[in-house]
Structure formats: structure tokens, C-alpha cells
Design goal:
By secondary structure, the protein is of the alpha/beta class. Helix content is about 40%, strand content about 20%.
Length: about 150
């Protein structure tokens, strides 16, 4: 049995600091609300360019990335995540309306977790918790749905 502790980032967020890269305001909002309910510190970016700027300026524990962004730079963000030189690079989950094969055809190998839209936001939270726990050697409890 693993430790029942939560990851805490330098800002004190229990689940860690997450960058949500999503241009759909409704999807962005529900992800941020669920992330915050689960103890994550959620920041948003609506374009790939904005996400790249934020990734340069701040350290994130995780990134939720929609590939189909209005500026067409979702693939650039994915490549940046895949090639991250940091010793503690963020974990990432790709969310997209494309099926996984089409996404791989357009953007190359995803090399990470892929969740197609529509999705259950709590599935995304549990996936992030598992990825962070695996990276950090910790174990997370399930998020409260209350």
C-alpha cells in the first residue's frame, strides 16, 4: 500500500500546478473547477502561443493540452512537452476531439496519455493524479465528487 499523501507544489496547491490549454470556454471552465476541487492550482491558456509563453515563465507539474487550438500551435506545445529538458518536466494529458490515430497522423506520436472528447473531467483528474504519483513516487486518494 502506498503513502496516502497529496503532491504539494511550491504555491501550496495540494494537487500541484496545472496548465489547462483549451480554447473552448465551457471545457476550460469545467476542467479548472474540477481541478481546483481536487486541490490543484489551475491556470489557463487559450492558445498554443500563450501556453508556450507560460511554460517558459513558470514551472508546472502537469499540462492538459487540447491539440485543436485556434492559432494552430497545439502541436508546438506537444513537441515542447515531449522535448522538455527540465529534470522535472511536467506530465501531460492530451485531450482532443480527434481520434487518437488522426491526432498521431497530424501531430506525430503522442507519447503520453490521450483522452478523446467528450470526456469525464474526473477521469482527467484521476489520470493526472496517477501520472504525478508515478513520477513522484506518491499515491493519491480519489477526488471527492461531493
Amino acid at each position: 500500500m502506498g503513502l496516502d499523501r497529496k503532491h504539494t507544489n511550491e504555491n501550496g496547491a495540494q494537487g500541484g500546478k496545472v496548465l489547462v490549454v483549451e480554447d473552448d470556454p465551457a471545457v476550460n471552465r469545467i476542467l479548472r473547477v474540477c481541478l481546483r476541487s481536487a486541490g490543484f492550482d489551475a491556470t489557463q491558456a487559450e492558445t498554443g502561443g500563450d501556453a508556450l509563453r507560460q511554460l517558459e515563465a513558470m514551472l508546472f507539474d502537469a499540462v492538459l493540452l487540447d491539440l485543436g487550438l485556434p492559432d494552430g500551435r497545439g502541436g508546438d506545445v506537444l513537441k515542447r512537452l515531449q522535448d522538455a529538458p527540465w529534470p522535472r518536466s511536467p506530465v501531460w494529458v492530451v485531450i482532443s476531439a480527434l481520434d487518437e490515430d488522426e491526432a498521431a497522423r497530424r501531430y506525430g506520436p503522442i507519447r503520453g496519455v490521450y483522452i478523446p472528447k467528450p470526456f469525464d473531467p474526473w477521469e482527467v483528474i484521476r489520470t493526472l493524479q496517477r501520472l504525478l504519483a508515478s513520477r513522484d513516487g506518491a499515491s493519491f486518494g480519489e477526488p471527492s465528487l461531493a
